[in-house]
Specification:
The complex is a heterodimer of chains A (415) and B (196). With 415 residues, chain A is of the alpha/beta class. Chain A has one domain: Rossmann fold. Helix content of chain A is 32%, strand content 14%. Chain A has helices spanning 159-173, 186-197, 216-230, 248-262, 265-271, 292-305, 310-322, 333-337, 357-369, 393-414, and strands at 44-48, 52-53, 59-60, 63-70, 80-84, 111-112, 117-118, 123-127, 180-184, 204-208, 276-278, 290-291, 343-349, 374-379. In chain A, helix 3 (216-230) packs antiparallel against helix 4. By secondary structure, chain B is α/β, with parallel strands linked by helices. Chain B has one domain (3-113, 146-195): Rossmann fold (3-Layer(aba) Sandwich). Chain B contains 8 helices and 7 strands; from the N terminus they run αβαβαββαβααβααβ. Chain B has a 7-stranded mixed beta sheet with strand order 3-2-1-4-5-7-6, with helices on both faces. In chain B, strand 1 (17-21), helix 2 (27-36) and strand 2 (39-44) form a beta-alpha-beta unit. The mean pLDDT of chain B is 91. Classes of the chains: A alpha/beta (415), B alpha/beta (196). Chains A and B meet through helix 9, strand 14 and helix 10 of A and helix 3 and strand 3 of B.
């Protein structure tokens, strides 16, 4: 269920939005017929009535996953690629729903004909994760047992639950093995988990700006964001939908905190510096002073709070916090990766301090120790963690080179 | 095919695990995987070379050799190879020591600064040698630690490293004729096979 009861997004200010780990924040204005676009797309929906046992021990009796596909599945169903989304992402990864959509899907730079994830070569599947708020079953869905929205009673999820639910979708689509499972940030964690949970079903794993687990600092940011939401008087212990309220201010602050961590000091400095939006420091005046960065952050926070569900934000950030790839392998990433059977491409960005290059390097080191094929590139970028969503010549080049190789090997196998 | 890569291939055991430091476009690893069934990784810092490796399916990891090999366990590779990169390192001796810690043996190639042409250039023009092989001016060269064959062998002796093989390569006719007689004067490139 989408958040239809919410008012339309507030009007943008005159500040052009920096893209952020936010599916709606790309600045482009292509038309759906542009070269390199998958064009108009329609979300699909798959209901599952077979119960899903979750990592937390609870059982979800039935659920729905909303997803989109781009490109064509080949006859032996070997060219499928799974896109795993990040914290605030969803199934609309590429193309447009309507001709007049202001923005394409959140990863349109990288998915489409002739792009790194080339829809002329691959059948791309993008799923809204379980627990999400864009159509898949989650806290805003109706709990059949109560007739009310699940809200805070929705089961706590871990990354592996997403992986298992995605595997069921693969079963429905007849996909035995993914040519590649690809994700950035939290999506990268899903891709890695796939390689361990279903080693025989993943042929390549592309992990971008991710980590084996969150650092204390990362968890601290997430906790501060959650506190912002839960301390909003309209949070109503998470039952805000029943109370016809919405902790919008809390979610906006949570988003502002997250947003700062997705950008780099340098990037923010270049974009905003100390520019004033209103007022002045002239002597003798006592005007209200507002920096551009203040206005920008407030806009980002508020617009996000109109399209995202607070309980979902809590659920997703907790899944991030809980993720620890090697926990069940004696805390040894090498032991963990020794179960993988796929090849890996790892990418990180120099100015990303939320998922710093060192975190990706740890993954690369563990994979090399485990004797698993891996390539790793550290991409120069001033855009912080958000760089994984943005155009960048080197990023595109190495990503495309890898995917071309995947496509070539697929073609050789078919022959 | 570079001559030094051919020589290296002869010293690599089939099916072994190889780490190639400064692997460039992955030519050596590609050749070793095709001809010797070798598995391994290349380390490289040049973005274009990394992309070339990825495009040809060679495992390449972006890593600066000057930060050491601390991320690799003792004896975790059968062989650690480094071709034509020794002279670019800030502490070449420490990197060789690391190579011998990580690999059971190691293969190193470097240009010979004691070759007669370099000596001639310095002696008679009074300027640092600039040649086809070493085309850089002194101020912009990535080659910051030149040595001669003899220098390198002194380092090996002082460090108690064992030289298993040494092969001297020259592409000029004069060099080919005389490199075995006076290697430090006529050899252009040295290929050393070392162990602890």
């Amino acid at each position: 269920m989408l958040l239809r009861h919410l008012p339309d997004a507030i009007q943008p200010t005159d500040i052009s939005a920096l893209p952020t780990e936010n599916p709606t924040a790309s600045r482009e204005t292509h038309s759906a017929t542009d070269v390199g676009s998958v064009g108009l797309v329609k979300p699909k929906s798959q209901h599952f009535s077979e119960p899903l046992e979750l990592a937390c021990g609870r059982i979800l009796q039935q659920y729905t996953l909303v997803y989109e596909t781009y490109g064509k599945l080949n006859t032996d169903k070997s060219n499928a690629v799974l896109i795993c989304h990040a914290l605030s992402g969803h199934h609309h990864a590429a193309g447009r729903h309507r001709d007049d959509d202001k923005r394409p899907g959140w990863w349109d730079h990288y998915i489409g004909p002739g792009k790194p994830i080339d829809t002329n070569q691959f059948f791309v599947v993008a799923v809204n994760n379980l627990g999400g708020c864009h159509g898949s079953t989650g806290p805003v869905s109706i709990n059949p047992d109560t007739g009310h929205a699940w809200g805070p009673d929705f089961p706590s999820l871990r990354v592996r639950d997403w992986v298992h639910s995605q595997a069921r979708l693969a079963d429905v689509l007849g996909i035995g093995q993914w040519a590649a499972v690809i994700g950035g940030s939290l999506g990268g964690m899903q891709a890695m988990r796939w390689s361990l949970e279903y080693p025989e079903r993943v042929s390549n794993c592309v992990v971008i700006a991710s980590a084996l687990k969150l650092s204390a600092q990362n968890i601290a940011f997430n906790e501060t964001a959650r506190q912002a939401i839960t301390s909003d008087p309209d949070f109503c212990d998470g039952r805000y939908l029943q109370a016809s309220k919405l902790p919008r201010r809390g979610l906006a602050v949570a988003r502002m905190i997250g947003h700062i961590t997705y950008l780099s000091d340098d990037g923010l400095g270049r974009k905003f510096g100390r520019e004033l939006r209103s007022g002045s420091f002239q002597r003798g005046t006592d005007e209200e002073i507002e920096f551009q960065i203040q206005s920008y952050l407030r806009y980002q926070g508020l617009s996000f709070s109109n399209i995202f569900d607070p309980n979902t934000y809590i659920l997703m950030t907790r899944a991030l916090d809980f993720f620890d790839l090697a926990r069940e392998y004696g805390d040894d990433p090498v032991a963990a990766f020794s179960h993988a059977r796929c090849r890996f491409l790892l990418l990180s960005f120099t100015s990303d301090w939320r998922f710093a290059p060192e975190r990706s390097k740890e993954i690369a080191d563990a994979l090399m120790h485990a004797n698993i094929p891996v390539s790793y590139a550290e991409i120069e970028s001033a855009m912080g963690h958000d760089a994984f969503l943005l155009p960048n010549a080197r990023y595109e080049g190495v990503f495309h080179a890898y995917m071309k190789r995947v496509a070539t090997e697929l073609a050789e196998e078919v022959r | 095919m570079r001559i030094d890569l051919d020589v290296i291939q002869n010293w690599i055991t089939p099916g072994s695990r190889v780490l190639d430091l400064g692997c460039g476009d992955g030519a050596l690893l590609h050749q070793l995987s095709q001809n010797k069934g070798v598995k391994g990784y290349g380390l490289e810092i040049d973005p274009e070379q990394i992309e070339r490796c990825v495009a040809r399916g060679i495992n390449v990891v972006e890593q600066n050799l000057n930060t050491g090999l601390g991320n690799f366990a003792d004896g975790s590779f059968d062989a650690v190879v480094m071709t034509q990169a020794l002279q670019t390192l800030s502490k070449p001796h420490l990197v060789v020591r690391e190579m011998l810690r990580v690999g059971r043996n190691c293969i190193i190639t470097f240009p010979n600064f004691g070759q007669w042409r370099a000596r001639w250039h310095l002696a008679f023009s009074g300027r640092m040698p600039v040649s086809d092989l070493l085309p850089y001016e002194w101020y912009s060269t990535p080659n910051i630690h030149f040595c001669t064959f003899r220098d390198f062998e002194v380092l090996c002796k002082e460090s108690s490293w064992t030289i298993l093989h040494r092969q001297v390569v020259s592409e000029s006719k004069l060099g080919v004729a005389l490199k075995d007689f006076l290697p430090n004067l006529f050899g252009e490139t040295a290929i050393y096979h070392l162990t602890r």
